[in-house]
């Protein structure tokens, strides 16, 4: 027979094996093309600032998949060369040159790989076309062509090496007793490469390297670190396979049964066992690493959204004004929307403290346990314990009865023009006890005098403040008695009534403001509330306002003077607006307990229990550090402090300043409600606001989506390659060990026993490799994943710490698929071995 005939016969005889190789190449091409397509589409959809992070992060799964494909093809090529060793030697003995054998192998490999690559690339394009990540067919074609060329060269190269070795009579040991499958040189080279790449990865934290000038690049050594570390793990497993097999062989030799034969076959055929071992270790490691990265990256994406939003929903007013008289709290309006379980107001102030400018976030302390979304970066226990003080900031304020619909007050007021200003005039809005006053009215133009405006501040335990305008008064400086409720030189009593909006229960009287404006000359104003009653359905209920009150002037602690009852005694200084506020004496005591970020504590040198002053709107706010967290919900920035809204508002009232209205509302969505639909209803109910959710609060901040998808695709591809590689190994072993079946049958080993023994032989090695791979992949993930995850967070000022989490379900599915695939291959091989054992017509010389 001619050499061409021998080559063709060899190809036909191993057609099934070549078919498995074609499927393997198709999987490698399809998965690699799919991973590239997902990354390309994700990079194009990401913001410009996040694209380098997507590309760099995707280098890790692509490198892992590429290494697995190369190792699989190399191992399968080695098996093919081993299976064809006898045919190759026969061809050379018939006069064929090594170059001819190599050319024939290259043509055969090119045909097989081209067909497999075409199928895999088309499948990848079709799969991406039905998703939200349609890929460029040109990119997929380039990747597929690269895979086809690499696979063909790799498969043909193994045949060429064996042909040249056979031509030089460098025939390998045919006894099958290859005890060392991982040489010292291979171990050293693999470990050195893995160590170098791992050092680079740990140095930079990720393949994304940011230069001093702000430019970015991808470090290929760091990108290849996980792949090479898993490869070194496979090399270690290869190195210990022989010694472990010998130990088990000695243990099994002392026990009856066929187990010793199975173990001895593993020890004798380490090269054949090495292929499934390496592939399955890589597959198990890839699945575990993908599980750690996918879980941690998903948790990071959730944490970024949660910490940016602070709650399930955050409603932000576009132009938050100061509180207006009679305004209903926005939190109540949000809470009334269907699907909202609870809603609380929140206040955000930009402050300064020494050389930094922290953000002050104020929410009700009770909300930290129900509304504020906690993470490991800011756990609920720390927030709750830190914000709650030892007492109620409004503990001295008079309580309003439940069901109050209106307040009725008996007011006595007087206003006198001073001919000359006193020498010891206090600051504007101050309390001045006048030593003497004119006995007769002094003529003065009343036009433009706003006098006096009386506002009662109602407070709730959660910190909500509502100003209530108490009637209207007109200035009667000339004493002619004209106007509505004229206030002139002589004290005049009035009864005024103010209707309350629907505010719910639990309200109290926290302060009273008296404002005057437009007076051209100094005025002496007195005003007192001699009695206050709450109107309820059952009639009128007196409100006790006899507790001690004090003026609230300027900064905290400046010029506070006790007053007799709910009353003011004020001298104006100019025509501008002047205000005097009185409130219960024990209200708004500083400092306020606060929870601060670790970055702020480090910057200012703070520890738990320390005091720090922050300035906002000209006001000094004294804080006491009650806790330190990595991040504060609702403000993902380095320098943030969170305080109780009630305590902050009490301090603002005490300072006598204009109290800003809460510009935000934080809400919890009911567990049974749809979050997206609820957010839409809130947006409709609250015009002029922006509704944020964890999914929309930081768009573009999480660039890990495409990287996660590529990682799972790569892990799935490595598992599929491993199963196919094990199948090719099993198919090659069936042909190589055909004579062994005849010998065992001749010594009395039945077909069923042989099939079971061969299945256990492969299954035991592969199962052990799965365990080793999963453990190694998890260990690698704990070291490498935190930096990889942080590198894909962009667009936020503060990156929360990485929380290692294992995506259990997809990892378990991949591990189960790997185990089931190995079991299926082992079972199929057992069935085939039983069939061979029943074939009594086989002879060694028949091929």
Structure description:
- Helix 2 (15-45) packs antiparallel against helix 3 (51-83).
- The chain is elongated and about 135 Å long.
- The model is unreliable at 170-180, 324-328, 421-446 and 554-559 (pLDDT under 50).
- The strands form five sheets. It has a nine-stranded mixed β-sheet. It has a six-stranded antiparallel β-sheet with strand order 8-7-12-18-15-16, covered by helices on one side. Strands 6, 11, 13, 14 and 17 form a five-stranded antiparallel β-sheet that branches.
- It has 847 residues and is an alpha+beta fold.
- Helices cover 48% and strands 18% of the residues.
Rounded mean pLDDT score? 77
What distance lies between the first and last C-alpha atoms, to the nearest angstrom?
15 Å
Describe the main β-sheet briefly: 9 strands, mixed
- Strand order in space, largest sheet: 20-21-19-22-5-4-23-3-24
Q: Specify the number of helices.
A: 20
Proportion of residues in β-strands: 15-25%
The tally of beta strands, per DSSP, is 24
Query: What's the shape?
Result: elongated
Low-confidence regions: 170-180, 324-328, 421-446, 554-559
Assign the structural class, choosing from mainly alpha, mainly beta, alpha/beta, alpha+beta, or little secondary structure: alpha+beta
Task: Quickly describe the structure.
The chain has 847 residues and is an alpha+beta fold. The chain contains 20 helices and 24 strands. 48% of the residues lie in helices and 18% in strands.
SSE arrangement:
Elements: H1 3-13, H2 15-45, H3 51-83, H4 85-93, H5 98-129, H6 137-167, H7 184-204, E1 208-210, E2 216-218, H8 220-223, H9 225-253, H10 259-268, H11 270-309, E3 313-317, H12 330-335, E4 340-350, E5 359-363, H13 380-387, E6 406-417, E7 450-460, E8 465-469, E9 474-475, E10 486-487, E11 492-499, E12 507-517, E13 523-536, E14 539-542, E15 549-552, E16 562-563, E17 567-571, E18 578-584, E19 592-597, H14 598-604, E20 611-616, E21 619-629, E22 640-644, H15 645-655, E23 664-669, H16 675-685, E24 689-692, H17 704-736, H18 738-746, H19 751-791, H20 808-838
Parallel strand pairs: 5-22, 9-10, 19-21
Antiparallel strand pairs: 1-2, 3-23, 3-24, 4-5, 4-23, 6-11, 6-13, 7-8, 7-12, 12-18, 13-14, 13-17, 15-16, 15-18, 19-22, 20-21
């Amino acid at each position: 027979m001619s050499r061409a005939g021998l080559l063709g016969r060899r190809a036909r005889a191993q057609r099934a094996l070549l078919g498995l190789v074609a499927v393997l190449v198709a999987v490698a091409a399809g998965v690699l093309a799919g991973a590239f397509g997902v990354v390309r589409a994700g990079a194009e959809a990401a913001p410009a600032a996040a694209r380098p992070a997507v590309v760099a992060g995707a280098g890790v799964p692509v490198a892992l998949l590429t290494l697995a494909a190369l190792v699989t093809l190399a191992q399968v090529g080695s098996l093919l060369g081993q299976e064809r060793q006898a045919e190759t030697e026969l061809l050379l003995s018939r006069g064929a040159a090594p170059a001819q054998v190599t050319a024939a192998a290259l043509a055969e490999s090119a045909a097989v790989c081209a067909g497999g690559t075409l199928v895999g690339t088309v499948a990848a394009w079709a799969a991406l076309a039905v998703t939200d990540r349609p890929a460029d067919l040109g990119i997929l074609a380039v990747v597929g062509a690269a895979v086809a060329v690499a696979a063909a060269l790799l498969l043909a190269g193994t045949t060429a090496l064996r042909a040249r070795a056979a031509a030089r009579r460098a025939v390998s040991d045919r006894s099958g007793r290859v005890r060392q499958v991982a040489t010292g040189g291979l171990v050293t080279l693999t470990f050195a490469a893995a160590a170098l790449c791992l050092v680079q990865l740990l140095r930079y934290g990720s393949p994304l390297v940011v230069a001093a000038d702000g430019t970015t690049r991808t470090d290929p050594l760091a990108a290849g670190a996980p792949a090479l570390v898993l490869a070194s793990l496979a090399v270690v497993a290869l190195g210990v396979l022989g010694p472990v097999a010998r130990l088990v062989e000695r243990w099994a030799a002392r026990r009856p049964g066929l187990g010793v034969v199975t173990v001895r076959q593993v020890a004798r055929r380490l090269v054949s066992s090495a292929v499934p071992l390496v592939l399955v270790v890589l597959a198990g490691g890839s699945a575990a690493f993908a599980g750690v990265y996918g879980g941690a990256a998903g948790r990071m994406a959730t944490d970024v959204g949660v910490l940016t939003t602070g709650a399930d929903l955050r409603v932000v007013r576009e132009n938050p004004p100061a509180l207006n008289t009679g305004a209903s709290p926005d939190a109540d309006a949000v809470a009334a929307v269907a699907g909202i379980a609870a809603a609380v107001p929140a206040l955000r102030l930009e402050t300064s403290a020494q050389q930094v400018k922290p953000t002050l976030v104020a929410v009700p302390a009770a909300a930290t346990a129900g509304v504020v979304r906690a993470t490991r970066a800011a756990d609920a226990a720390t927030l709750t314990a830190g914000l709650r003080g030892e007492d109620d900031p409004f503990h001295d304020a008079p309580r309003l009865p439940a069901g109050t619909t209106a307040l009725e007050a008996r007011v006595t007021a007087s206003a006198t023009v001073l001919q000359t200003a006193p020498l010891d005039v206090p600051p504007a809005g101050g309390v001045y006890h006048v030593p003497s006053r004119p006995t007769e009215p002094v003529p003065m133009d009343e036009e433009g005098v706003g006098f006096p405006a009386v506002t009662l501040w109602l407070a709730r335990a959660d910190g909500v403040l509502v100003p209530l305008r108490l009637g209207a008064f007109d200035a009667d400086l000339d004493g002619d008695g004209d106007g509505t409720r004229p206030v002139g030189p002589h004290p005049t009593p009035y009864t005024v009534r103010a209707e309350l909006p629907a505010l719910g229960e639990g309200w109290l009287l926290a302060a009273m403001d008296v404002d005057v404006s437009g007076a051209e000359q100094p005025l002496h104003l007195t005003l007192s509330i001699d009695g206050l009653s709450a109107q309820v359905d059952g009639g009128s209920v007196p409100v006790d306002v006899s507790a001690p009150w004090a003026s609230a002037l300027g900064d905290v602690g400046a010029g506070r003077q006790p007053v007799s009852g709910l009353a003011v005694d004020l001298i104006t200084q100019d025509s501008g607006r002047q205000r005097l506020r009185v409130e219960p004496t024990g209200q708004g005591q500083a400092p306020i307990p606060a929870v601060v970020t670790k970055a702020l504590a480090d910057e200012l040198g703070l520890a738990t229990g320390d005091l720090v002053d922050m300035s906002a709107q000209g006001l000094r706010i004294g804080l006491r550090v009650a806790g330190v967290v990595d991040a504060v919900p609702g403000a993902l920035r380095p320098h943030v402090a969170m305080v109780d809204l009630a305590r902050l508002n009490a301090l603002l009232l005490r300072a006598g300043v204009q109290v800003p209205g809460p510009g935000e509302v934080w809400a919890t969505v009911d567990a049974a409600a749809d979050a997206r639909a609820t957010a839409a209803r809130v947006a409709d109910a609250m015009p002029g606001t922006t509704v944020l959710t964890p999914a929309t609060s930081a768009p573009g901040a999480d660039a890990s989506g495409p990287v996660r998808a590529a990682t799972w695709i790569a892990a799935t591809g490595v598992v599929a390659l491993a199963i196919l590689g094990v199948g090719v190994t099993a198919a090659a072993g069936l042909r190589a060990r055909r004579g062994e079946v005849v010998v065992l049958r001749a010594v009395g080993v039945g077909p069923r026993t042989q099939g079971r023994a061969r299945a256990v032989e492969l299954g035991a090695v592969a199962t052990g490799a799965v365990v080793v791979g999963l453990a190694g992949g998890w260990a690698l993930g704990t070291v490498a994943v935190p930096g990889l995850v942080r590198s894909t967070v962009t667009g936020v000022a503060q990156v929360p710490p990485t929380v290692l989490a294992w995506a259990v379900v997809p990892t378990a599915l991949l591990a189960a698929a790997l185990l089931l695939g190995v079991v299926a291959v082992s079972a199929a091989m057992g069935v085939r071995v039983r069939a061979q054992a029943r074939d009594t017509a086989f002879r060694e010389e028949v091929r």
